[in-house]
C-alpha cells in the first residue's frame, strides 16, 4: 500500500492526538524526536567530511524548534553548526533550546549573507505544516537569499514558503536538495523530486492504522528511512 500524503488539517489533527491525554506525548518530546531524526537524516546524506559546516535557519515556531534540537545533535555528531534565528520567541521551551545550544558554544549569527558564504549546507527549519498565507518580514528576505544560494538545502517537513498542500505556488519558494518529512509526507511533497527521507519514529500502530499512513518499516534502530525511490515507484 502507498505511503499516505497528509493534508494540513490531518497533519495538525495527528499532532493534536499525539499530544492529547490519550496520546501521552508532550511538545518537548515530539520536538526532540523530530530534531534527532533531522540530524540523523543530514548525517546520512551529507557526510561531515564534506559538509561539516551547517547553517541552520530557524523560524519562530515548532519547525524552528526542530532545527534548534537538530543543531544540538549535529554538534554531538561532529558537525559545526551555526544558527540563524532572526525572530525568537519568549516561550520557555524555545529559550531552553537556545540555552542548550549556547552551552555547546554553537554560534548564533545575524548575518545570513556572510554565513551563506562560509557554510557547506543549509538546514531549512523556518516554516512547518502550520504555514499559510504570505511570507512576511524578516523571512521574505531570508527566502530570497535561500533562492539565490548555490549551497545544498535540506528542508524540515516542508520547504519553507511552499503551500503545505499546493507546493511552490508562483515559485515564491526555493527547491531544496533534500526533504525530511516528519510523521508522513505532506501533500506538497508530491512536487518534490529530490532526496526524500522520512523521520519521526514515534507514531503508535493504532494511530497509523486510523489514518492509513502506511509507514514503511524503519530498519534496525534507525530514526529515518529513505523513501525517495519508494515514492517514485508509487507515482
TrEMBL record:
Binding site for (6S)-NADPHX: 62-66, 128-134, 157
A GO term, aspect molecular function: nucleotide binding
Function text: Catalyzes the epimerization of the S- and R-forms of NAD(P)HX, a damaged form of NAD(P)H that is a result of enzymatic or heat-dependent hydration. This is a prerequisite for the S-specific NAD(P)H-hydrate dehydratase to allow the repair of both epimers of NAD(P)HX.
Alphabetic keyword roster: Cytoplasm, Isomerase, Metal-binding, Mitochondrion, NAD, NADP, Nucleotide-binding, Potassium
Named cofactor requirement(s): K(+)
Record's GO cellular component terms: mitochondrion
Classification via Pfam families: YjeF_N
Family as reported in the entry's similarity comment: Belongs to the NnrE/AIBP family.
Any coiled-coil regions, as ranges: none
Lineage per the UniProt record: Eukaryota, Fungi, Fungi incertae sedis, Mucoromycota, Glomeromycotina
The name this protein goes by in its record: NAD(P)H-hydrate epimerase
UniProt cross-references to SUPFAM superfamilies, sorted A to Z: YjeF N-terminal domain-like
Record-listed E.C. numbers: 5.1.99.6
Catalysed reactions, semicolon-separated: (6R)-NADPHX = (6S)-NADPHX; (6R)-NADHX = (6S)-NADHX
Domain of life: Eukaryota
YjeF N-terminal domain span: 11-215
The keyword Repeat appears for this protein: no
InterPro entries: YjeF_N_dom, YjeF_N_dom_sf, YJEFN_prot_NAXE-like
Amino-acid positions noted as binding K(+) in the UniProt annotation, renumbered to this chain: 63, 124, 160
Subcellular location field: Cytoplasm; Mitochondrion
CC cofactor note: Binds 1 potassium ion per subunit.
Primary localization class, coarse: cytoplasm
Amino acid at each position: 500500500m502507498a505511503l499516505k500524503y497528509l493534508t494540513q488539517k490531518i497533519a495538525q489533527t495527528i499532532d493534536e492526538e499525539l499530544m492529547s491525554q490519550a496520546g501521552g506525548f508532550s511538545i518537548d518530546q515530539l520536538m526532540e524526536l523530530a530534531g534527532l531524526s533531522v540530524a540523523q537524516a543530514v548525517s546520512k546524506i551529507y557526510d561531515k567530511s564534506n559538509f561539516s559546516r551547517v547553517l541552520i535557519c530557524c523560524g519562530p515556531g515548532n519547525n524552528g524548534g526542530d532545527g534548534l534540537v537538530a543543531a544540538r545533535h549535529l554538534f554531538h555528531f561532529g558537525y559545526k553548526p551555526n544558527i540563524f534565528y532572526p525572530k525568537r520567541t519568549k516561550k520557555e521551551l524555545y529559550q531552553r533550546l537556545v540555552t542548550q545550544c549556547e552551552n555547546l558554544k554553537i554560534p548564533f549569527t545575524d548575518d545570513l549573507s556572510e554565513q551563506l558564504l562560509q557554510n557547506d549546507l543549509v538546514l531549512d527549519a523556518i516554516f512547518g505544516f502550520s504555514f499559510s498565507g504570505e511570507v512576511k518580514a524578516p523571512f521574505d528576505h531570508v527566502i530570497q537569499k535561500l533562492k539565490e544560494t548555490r549551497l545544498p538545502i535540506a528542508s524540515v517537513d516542508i520547504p519553507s514558503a511552499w503551500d503545505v498542500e499546493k507546493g511552490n505556488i508562483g515559485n515564491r519558494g526555493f527547491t531544496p536538495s533534500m526533504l525530511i518529512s516528519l510523521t508522513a509526507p505532506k501533500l506538497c511533497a508530491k512536487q518534490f523530486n529530490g532526496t526524500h527521507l522520512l523521520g519521526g519514529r514515534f507514531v503508535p500502530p493504532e494511530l497509523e492504522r486510523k489514518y492509513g499512513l502506511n509507514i514503511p518499516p524503519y530498519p534496525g534502530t534507525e530514526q529515518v528511512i529513505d523513501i525517495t525511490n519508494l515514492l517514485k515507484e508509487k507515482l
